[in-house]
Amino acid sequence: MGLRIKGIKFNQHGIAFIVGVTKAKSILSQSSIDEWTPTNTQGYQRQFYRARAREFGRYISNNGISPNAVLLNIRDIDMDSIEKVSESEYEIPEEVHLWIVDGQHRLKGLEIIGEQDPDILELEIPIVIMDLKGKDPEDARYKEAIQFLIINRTQKGVRADLAERILVKVAEMEGVEPVMRNISDQTLPSSLSKDMEWKPRAVLVSDLLNKRQDSPLKGRIKLPNTRSRGTTVNQVSVVSSLKQILHTAIIADNPDDTVASILINFWKAVKELCPEPFEEVEETQRANDYVLLKTAGIFVIPQLLLRLLTYCPTDDNGNKVLTSDSFKALLSRAGDLMQSSFWHSSGEGTAGSLGTGQKSFSIISNLIMQRISSGEDNKMKKIKVIV
User: Fold this and answer.
1) Helical H runs in 313-357?
2) pTM (2 d.p.)
């Protein structure tokens, strides 16, 4: 028996289609992937990655759903020859081969999990079958490649900042721990659930930095689907810069508002020592001459905060004093490296001249810390925080 599909036929600009559902095992037994290799140079599919496929399979096996249809093509027969075997079911003869145009990792993921859990292959999945047969099978193959190109190069993925907002909603509705442990009502692939530990919280702290009246970063963070005037850095960069902050217990063990207060205190100290970058943005609504309020500064400043925890003073009760004054006293020891001139976007020896990647940000952070920490030997302590 061939592949049976519950569905309907339709026609689009002279091309015949069947859209419907069938079992995963039925597709796998009658389809192939035309992957490009040095020995198959007429192929067009990307390389199959087992880890990516396995992740999808695990997601489905944990009660995840996949509403997107797998796209396949028939190269060698006319769609009109495929007949109904019941009122709403078609059968593609078993000698007819299908070629996977879109969805190879989804299908292979189910196949991998099916090796240990055969029941997963009984799952019905949505499919679309095209009849791009062309003049001959090679012409059909070429037309498949064109569809593959269109699908994978013209559709735009969800913006990262919007995806972060959705993770916040998931955390609110399901809770972080249940999602990470796959025991919530909403299942996420591991590539998304691994960020649940810190990213939703980082978005909330970023919002506080962007909204609080006492924050030097107020109004400077570009949010999803908003105009950029007056902003200097996007939400994604700010959120990413907070990852290590939220993995450092002495800060992360506090409520979100306290975490934001610590960061605001640090930025206040930075602003007092380097006022010109802030003045530029207030006057022009742009950050052209300095990188302090752009991606470089947004990543370097939290790095400095974490590294300076070692040197922060304590009060009589042994609590770390993380005020803007204590931060300023430490940062001022960096001399000209914590003055506006160092943060120019261009010029020899400036922060802007050192590059825009994470390696460059580490170099900037190291330069400043070497200046500050000369001759110091304090040990970090896990103690209460005063802000």
Assistant:
1) 324-331
2) 0.78
